[in-house]
Amino acid sequence: MWTDRLNHLCNDTRIVPYYQPIFQCGGRLLKVPRVEVLMRGLAREEEIIEPRILLPLLEESAQYDDAYDELLRGVLNDKVALQNAFGSELIVCINIYAKQLMRRLDCDRLYAFIESMSPLRVEIELSEGDRITNESQLARNLGTLQQFGTQLACDDFSSKWSFIDRLERTPFDTIKIDRGLLERAGSRDVPSIVQRLSAVTLETLCSAGDDYTVVLEGIESQRHWGLAQQFGFENVQLQGFLLARPVSINVLLEQFSQGLWQQKVRDLSTMRSISLTAEAV
Known about the structure:
Blueprint: H1 2-11, E1 14-24, E2 31-42, E3 48-49, H2 51-60, H3 64-86, E4 91-95, H4 104-117, E5 121-127, H5 135-147, E6 151-157, H6 163-169, E7 174-177, H7 179-185, H8 192-206, E8 213-216, H9 222-230, E9 237-238, H10 249-258, H11 260-280
């Protein structure tokens, strides 16, 4: 019955891009240098199908490639609106599996998409946990993408034991730090050596601005916000549900025009300042 339900959803679902802004919070001015594109399914009854259901369904039904094409077309349709709101320097971040970059057809599809998105820039996000079967072929394809002006991000950084090795082997422009590292760095519930190593790693990454753009992912609570401040978020970019959830293009533009994100950051900064003052007293 559950399989029938999923097949019904798949047949009656169209793929739409949702966007989550990524913020630069240093100083008094809040900037949006990036937006991440996230795939959502929109069922006939306007029901949003979340990725935890949608992605396995697409994989099982061999429709992922078609859905990815539909996602890219949706982003292209939103290009002008994104450029008008955020400017031509905006970077549009797209997740992709490493296995897609091993196929010529998928690479050609990406080249066409990147050219069509100009003057907006595209950043390809590769998850640290992706299994790579042919490192040399992947490196060649990534090199070609970067020749097109594409930036390359390591997503979920520190979520696997091999994260240092991945940095050495792949010419990333951006590191997106997994929330787990931030939580371990500020936790008293992990072994002290784990806490100290996590804190040192995080501090090192937050000061790596000359080598990489660094994004702290998963800012989902006031505690995460406080930890980000503690480790120096002036030098990094922030992403997470506490600041802004993934939304449709219309909602994104409405939130931007109303200044909702700026107010959210001001409120969080004020609360953090009050908390620090109380601790000092």
